[in-house]
Amino acid sequence: MAAKAISSPVPVEWYPTLAVVMVSVGLMFTASFFIYEATSSKRSRSLAKEITTAAVASVLLGFGSLFVLLQVVFMFDDCVWGRVLGFSRLRACTSLRLHFSMRQLRDYMT
């Protein structure tokens, strides 16, 4: 029985758009929260409105940051890292950890 490939529920082409939209809307909710806190008196504040606004901003900024990081990972694949760092047999994994031997490092440094 062959294993099924794991795929993203969101197409990779949407990552930059989702990142920009989610971070922008999250920043708008954050600004709205700060303006509400600065302009309302202690007696007129609503705890439910504060928690709702903060939670929406937090979720949007969190997922927006996730899509920013995913886009960065897909932009810098191993051929880009190999050209940037000058290694001929450089291998990069998706978590951006670079694997190379000490010999390659010594050759690069000299």
TrEMBL record:
Signal peptide: none annotated. InterPro entries: TMEM258/Ost5. The chain crosses the membrane at residues 14-39, 51-74. One of its GO terms (biological process) is protein N-linked glycosylation. It comes from the Eukaryota. GO terms for cellular component: oligosaccharyltransferase complex. Its main location: membrane. It is a multi-pass membrane protein. It holds the Pfam family Ost5. It is found in: Membrane. Keywords: Membrane, Transmembrane, Transmembrane helix. Component of the oligosaccharyltransferase (OST) complex. Subunit of the oligosaccharyl transferase (OST) complex that catalyzes the initial transfer of a defined glycan (Glc(3)Man(9)GlcNAc(2) in eukaryotes) from the lipid carrier dolichol-pyrophosphate to an asparagine residue within an Asn-X-Ser/Thr consensus motif in nascent polypeptide chains, the first step in protein N-glycosylation. N-glycosylation occurs cotranslationally and the complex associates with the Sec61 complex at the channel-forming translocon complex that mediates protein translocation across the endoplasmic reticulum (ER). All subunits are required for a maximal enzyme activity. Belongs to the OST5 family. This is Dolichyl-diphosphooligosaccharide-protein glycosyltransferase subunit OST5.
